[in-house]
Amino acid sequence: MATCPAARGLEDDAAVIPFGSETLILTHDTLVQGVHIREDEDASDIAWKLVAVNLSDLAAKGAEPLGVLVSHMLGEDDQAFVAGLHEVLGKYDVPLLGGDTVRAEGRRVWGCTAIGRATCTPVPDRRGAKPGDAVYVTGQLGLAMLGMEDRGSGSVADLAYRRPAPLLSLGRSLAPHVTAMMDISDGLLLDAARMAKASSCTLALDAARLRPLAPAGRFEAALRWGDDYQLLLTGPDGLEARFAVTKIGIVQEVGQSSLLLDGHPPQEPLGFSH
Amino acid sequence: MATCPAARGLEDDAAVIPFGSETLILTHDTLVQGVHIREDEDASDIAWKLVAVNLSDLAAKGAEPLGVLVSHMLGEDDQAFVAGLHEVLGKYDVPLLGGDTVRAEGRRVWGCTAIGRATCTPVPDRRGAKPGDAVYVTGQLGLAMLGMEDRGSGSVADLAYRRPAPLLSLGRSLAPHVTAMMDISDGLLLDAARMAKASSCTLALDAARLRPLAPAGRFEAALRWGDDYQLLLTGPDGLEARFAVTKIGIVQEVGQSSLLLDGHPPQEPLGFSH
Questions:
Q1: Statement: residue A23 has pLDDT above 50
Q2: What else is known (chains A, B) (predicted)?
């Protein structure tokens, strides 16, 4: 993605800041119209997604949100944007701490910074997976993909696409038990490969366990589709008995490929790179 | 500026977040090419300004920076951007905590969030000016204006424009002594009017005290020019004996105009609104 190695440093996990006896988590995401956001997206859905994707980063850290800052590029639809902002902040009981508005012609850009308080230390990240761990995922895969094809219908899939739900409560419950955790924003396979590389190991996934999580006939696409904002995690065996997670594979010593699906490297591209 | 009243809430001061026994300060600024940044600006200067304007917001709070998150829209000049980022972060000893990079066609947008730790409470804001207070300003006015006309020369003015210096140390020294403080980003008159309105009083400024701070023959323009990132503050008489500030007026009970220059409302426009 980034052509400059130093700029790639900006792609890191959320920031973890020890602060007195507490630990702060800071995340920032930028959404660009036509890149992360469809040209015809409703402004209230844009506001929701902007906040939700940042809260999802906090969820993957097991963090409790303290608030968000929002940067909004003004347009014709500011009322709808503000309505969506109020909806998502109200739903997750998160205060709007500030931000800024700018006015400019052309392609619109939105930014959100979320700040949270870690509820457990060490704070989970993508680097802690260890050979012998089990690999788990929350929820369904590909629901947002179906939702994008079914936009505006009000179906469960439509809502999953337009109004992703950050898994704050589940993330907090899981955090003390995981060895690694991240949210799936760019597709399961791509994000699993990232976790494997960051942890210097191989994630070996089992198609038979993944298949029931994907919509019928869309298995390959669902594994490569982003926007679901489910959590990917590793940890001891048995977590599926205590939490709403599905075991999908195991962590192995690092091999030739950092990611295996039924023993073979999955076909590229693994997911959505932007 | 904003057409929607609720969106204007995003224009508030930096966020102040009580956190355990400490107080956190969070600021976010977005810079848009062609709006806040000239089309031909060097990417290293853009990176410097992006970080510096946020650190200036922390300076006005008397806060100590804990770090920044940077959102960078990739382009042809990423190396220069990263070089400028390293320069400004090194100069002020501020860690880069994270952020993101995005790739998109068209007008470029950059965002920065700075987080800081308050060094004194109550944290100064623009609402605390009281009748009887003196009004002070730091430094020179209009230096950035001269610098914009003299770009690339390497002069003091050129540097003031391209590489504004956040007054972190002076802000921390002043914070325990002020009743109100803010940085001047959109011109002295406009920001003084904002402070007066937020404090429900009138700021009465004295041209004879301001004139020596402005370049010869450019008095009216210098009072309306942004980008200087000096501090505007109110407090007891005598601060000029202890700190590098100039007394420029007094705070009065609120009158018909929230801002007076030699007893009269200054001519509109007061400054740079964007």
A1: yes
A2: Reaction mechanism of ThiL seems to utilize a direct, inline transfer of the gamma-phosphate of ATP to TMP rather than a phosphorylated enzyme intermediate.
